[in-house]
Structures are given as structure tokens and as C-alpha cells.
Fold this sequence. Notes:
Layout: H1 16-46, H2 54-84, H3 92-114, H4 138-169, H5 173-177, H6 179-184, H7 193-224, H8 232-254, H9 256-266, H10 274-289, H11 303-315, H12 317-332, H13 341-363, H14 366-372, H15 377-401, H16 412-437, H17 452-486
Helix pairs in contact: 1-2, 1-3, 1-15, 1-17, 2-3, 2-8, 2-15, 3-4, 4-7, 7-8, 7-9, 7-10, 9-13, 10-12, 12-13, 13-15, 13-16, 15-16, 15-17, 16-17
Amino acid sequence: MTDATVKIDTAPPENLHANMIKLTMGLGGVVFLLMMIFGLVMRTAQGGIIDLDPAIFYQLLTAHGAGMVGSAALSGAAILWYFVARYVDLNPKVYLIFLGLFLAGVVCILGSIFFGQYGGAWTFLFPLPAISGGAWEAGAAVVFCVGYLLIGVGFLIYYLEMGYKVSKSFKGLFGGLGWKFIINGDTAAAPPPTIIAASSVMVFNSIGIVLGAIVLVANIVNLLNPSFAVDALLAKNATYFFGHVFINATIYMAVTAVYEIIPEYTGKLWKSTRLFAIAWAAVVVFVQAVYFHHLLQDVNMPAWAMATGQVVSYASGVPLIAVTLFSTALYIKGSGMKWDLATKLLVLGVGGWGVGAIPAMIDGMVSVNKLMHNTQWVPGHFHTYLLLGEAAMAFGFAAWLVKDTSRVTQSGLDRFAFLAYVAGGAGFVLMFLWSGASSIPRRWAVHYEAWQLQSQVATVFAAVVILVTTLFIVGYVKGLMRRGAKT
């Protein structure tokens, strides 16, 4: 950071990039809302408030998981593209190709679920897509996997364009990663925080997507030709590597909104320091190595993998909590920043991300993992990451995109919406964590009566979050219309 003041135009540029991003954020917001409604229906069923066919429950569970991860990835990609385009000349046609492939993948996924009755969860864990007990045909599982492949190809094209342009502008990918800056300490050559973040995400998420694509292709071949043998343990390792890396990448993409937007309110640049670059270098390693904590219950995994899962689960919290969370708090302290809905949601996103790391680190202990990994403790930690982390950043970025620059003070509705979102989101994730601490299993369509109280309370908090999300989306649409009327 630096105390030098900067004059930044807080109105986003009205160009093709901005218009594509606005469209994407609108689509992402609608999907977020729809998936939240699916989640509400499932919690209502688990609470015994409504009767829901278990087959439909697992279809909703699959759609909810895939849709939430997808909408988080889409909004994160939009945020990253928007801000990287401030530093390098990205080709908007590439973004349109990415968006087209993404939407084509969504059509395949939704079609496989709601027309093909596929309900094998978003993780497509081998051999589940092929073993449905008659709940769905192999063709539905193939279409589901093809949908994921289309999205993966879209992301690889997206990263290739971004990686090429960053490498061209910052003397290679090592320059964009900030690794050259770490070695030589030349602050004049230090890439901006957004470029360091973008380069880091490109590296680890591209690796994850490639491994995920390999497993998807193996699944498809096995579905079409059951005699094709797949090593189940190897497939599980690759699947969870992909899933863990991909969902984390959504947050690491979205955090660039904090690096870019908050300085517009403080008048202070968010400067790349050596410690900042080292923290992101650690992220590149930790976000890949930490996936082992998903496999702590696999007794046939080697002991070194189990040890790595526990150790790295704790170490991975250092660059997040000690650098991102602490530096954000330090940056804001004494800045005299005027708060609005956008900044509140962005800072909430950083805080929710940090808080969500704590139950994840607890679950990373082998002794705890044996008892709690298959309970609702795990959805508790990743709902904290997403609902109070990535989604909060996405909504904050969207609010900033369409904010009324003529308004000096916050409206009462904005203040209510923020407080309600925090209360609803916190209450909702706490019900998951309480359920997990009570050993209530996850992914069960039907709950015993003794398990239903937490689900019943969670439905109230979920309804609050859905109401506020609706307000966010309506406000976003109104903001787009207001800006459109001025042009």
C-alpha cells in the first residue's frame, strides 16, 4: 500500500467489455437465486415441512451443486476479466466464445437432470454416473459429463487468452505471477495485485480443469463402453483435485474486485509488496496440495497423502487469514472510507472467506475428519465460503457496476438489505455447522425427526437470504435501466 492519493473514475467504462460483464453478472445473479430456491426446497424437505420424492431431492441436489459452483465460477470469471482488461488488451470475442460454451454446458447439465433424471451429484464421482439403480439412463450421465466438458473447454480458452496477453505485457508468466519481483525486489517492475491474482488462478485452475476433463472423458467412455476399465481411486483423486481447485478458484478470481474497487473509495493504491507476491505464490502450491483432505477417509491412500492433507489444510490458511484478511483490515483502518452497499459486501466477502477457512481447517484434522467429514459440517464450511464469501463479492461488484454516482448517502433499503443478508447468511451456515457437530449426515433426502429442528430453522434464514438476493437483483436491473436511460 501507499499513502499517495489517486484519482480514479468510479464510473465503469461503457464499452463492449463492460456490457458483456453486465450481462454475465445478470445471468449469474438469476442462477444464484434459482439455486438458492432449490436449496430452500431441500432444507424444507429435510425439516419435514414438505414431502419430497427422494429421486427429485437428489436431482435438485445435483442441480444445486452444479449451479452454485457454476454461477460462482461465471461471476468470478466476469470480475477477473473486467479488471484484467484494465491492464492488458483482452479480445472480447474470446470472452463471447467462453460465455457461449459455458451456456451450452449449462443447457446440457440442466437437460440431463430435469429431462434425463440424472441425480449423481455435481462431483460426477466414478462409478456413480454408471450405477443409477435405474434412476437414470447412461445417456443422461453422458450429457451431464459433456456439459462439464464444454464449460471446461470454455475456461481453458478464457485462460489461454488471458495468459497470453499477461505474458506479453509483463515479460512472461513468471513476471505476471510476481515471481521475478520476489527474486529481484524491483518494485518498479512489480505487477499489479490483480495481475498476480489472475496469473496464479490461471496456473492452478488450468491444471485442475485438465485433470477434471481427463476423468470426465474416462467416465463418458465407460458409460458408452462398460468394458473400459477405470481405476476408481485414481479417478477419485483427480475428481476431487478438480473440484477443490475449481471452487477455490471462483473466490480467488472474485477477490480482484476488492483490490480494484476499494482503492476508489480510499484514494490509496493497493500496492503489490513482496509479501503479497509470496502469499500468492504459496496459494498456487497450497490450493493444489490441500485437496488431500478430501481423501482422509480412504484407508487405502498412502500415509504421506494423509499427512499432507492435514498439514497443508492448516498451512493454506496462512496466506488467506494472515495476508488477505489482515491486509484488508489494515488497509481500510484509518482510511476514512465512505461505506456503501458495494464496499460493505466486498469487505464482507473477504471476512466470510476467512471465517469459512476455520471449519475447513478443523475438518482437515484426521481425528475430526473421521467423525465429521460425511456430516453437514462440510456443507457448513463451503456455504460460508460461497454465501458469505464469493457471492458477497459478486453482489458487491454488481452493486458497484450500476451504482448511482449522484447519490452521496446510502438508502435505507441498502442498509436493510446488507444487514439482512449478513444475518440470514450467518444463521443459515450456523445451522449446517450445528447439524455437523450433532453428527447429522449430509446428502440424506429424508431426516429423522430428531434431526429436523436445524433444517426447520435453516429454512427461515434461507428465506431471508432469498428475499435479499431478490432485492439485489432488482436493484441491479434498475441500475442498468437507469444507466441505459442516461446514454
